[in-house]
Amino acid sequence: MRRKTRIPPSPLPQRHGVDPVRIKLPQGEEWATVREHLVQRLAGAGPGVVDGMLDAGLFVGADGLAVASDTAYVPGMFVWFHRELPDEERVPFALDVVYRDEHIVVADKPHFLATTPRGSHVAETALARLRRELDIPALGAAHRLDRLTAGLVLFTVRPEERGAYQSLFRDRLVRKEYEAVAPYDEELELPRTVRSRILKERGVMAAQEVEGEPNAVTTVELREQRDDHGLYRLTPSTGQTHQLRVHMCALGLPLLGDPLYPTVTGPVPPGDFRRPLQLLARSLEFTDPVTGREHRFRSARALAAWSSYDEWAR
Questions:
Q1: Beta bridge partner(s), residue 256
Q2: Which of 31, 123, 132, 149 is deepest in the core (most CB within 10 A)?
Q3: Do 36 and 112 lie in a common domain?
Q4: Do 184 and 74 share a structural domain?
Q5: Which of 103, 75, 212, 230 is nearest to 160 (CA)?
Q6: Model pTM score
């Protein structure tokens, strides 16, 4: 049995609520120095960037000491550094905390704010904001919402308990309800349960339904109707990427403000907050795996296309 490598604690503190990058030097490769590996591994940073960082002492080992350009390559060695933070447009909406105890934080995320650092969204994410504002450096996300989706997100306070809360979502022990605004079709019989297989390929913006055993299940109900639009309750029992958006589009009811379904119009430009995706994670219900407490949380947000219907309908 292969022994699990113990990961030492980071010698670098967080910066702006963002963890430093950790690199483990792989086994079975032939590099004479750590520099040679880093230059190859981080080639996307551009010519001379790694050498400049090494000269400035920005790569450190587990002891917190700077890694020199001639440091010998040792398979399994860990190296840390802080990534260069991108210029980010601040999302000008509040991130509200609806519940907090010694184990979890539940936040009501606005549209356009990513849940965790990824790609060009790093410091301007829900996780980084909460770490800074609540002064909880160890805060972690138990699950994620799409950047364009608003609503409730569960975070964990203690790293050693994160797995227990993540398992709630993996094992489908969390009851989630969403609200969405989409076209109304009087010929479509609702409620109904949609089942399909959804595939999301890395590097491809939109997911798609494919043949095969269903891996995505959503119950769709109509709550209210106004003219040719409806307010829908969506209850997923699985959590595939873009599941609700794909299933609603498949029913002929693409969500208002969706830049991907049915037609990919490209990513929403930074700073364009005019037409948020009309999808809201309205409620979360679960039994706390650590305390045994029954939790029921509800978002206080409203979907603009419904609360300000006349304005959106124009």
A1: none
A2: 149
A3: no
A4: no
A5: 103
A6: 0.88
Q: Which of 32, 48, 81 is the last residue of a domain?
A: 81
Each of the 314 residues of the chain gets a pLDDT tens digit; together they read 445 567 899 999 999 999 999 999 998 778 999 999 999 999 888 899 999 999 999 999 999 999 999 999 999 999 999 988 878 889 999 999 999 999 999 999 999 999 999 877 888 999 999 999 999 999 999 999 999 999 999 999 999 999 999 999 999 999 999 999 999 999 999 999 999 999 999 889 999 999 999 999 999 999 999 999 999 999 999 999 999 999 999 999 999 999 999 999 877 887 889 899 999 999 999 999 999 999 999 999 999 999 887 676 55
Which two tokens mark 44?
């996307």
Q: Is 162 left (phi over 0), alpha (psi -120 to 50) or beta?
A: alpha
Strands (E), 184-272: 192-199, 208-210, 216-226, 229-236
Q: In this structure, is residue 293 part of a structural domain?
A: yes
Are residue 110 and residue 183 in the same domain, yes or no?
Answer: yes
Nearest 10 degrees: CA dihedral of 168, 171, 174, 176?
130
- Please list, in sequence order, all residues whose beta carbon lies within 8 angstroms of the beta carbon of residue 49, skipping any fewer than 6 positions away: 42
Range of the domain at 67: 21-81
Query: Residues 56, 102: one domain?
Result: no
DSSP state of 120: T
Asked whether 209 and 196 are in contact (CB, 8 A), the reply is: yes
Query: Number of structural domains, the chain?
Result: 2
Are both 173 and 39 inside the same structural domain?
Answer: no
279 in any annotated domain: yes
| Active-site residue, from 146, 227, 272, 288 | 146
Q: Are residues 74 and 181 in the same domain?
A: no
In a domain? residue 63 = yes
Q: Tell me, yes or no, if 146 is annotated catalytic.
A: yes
Give residue 229's identity as a one-letter amino acid code: H
Q: How far apart are CA 292 and CA 43, in angstroms?
A: 48
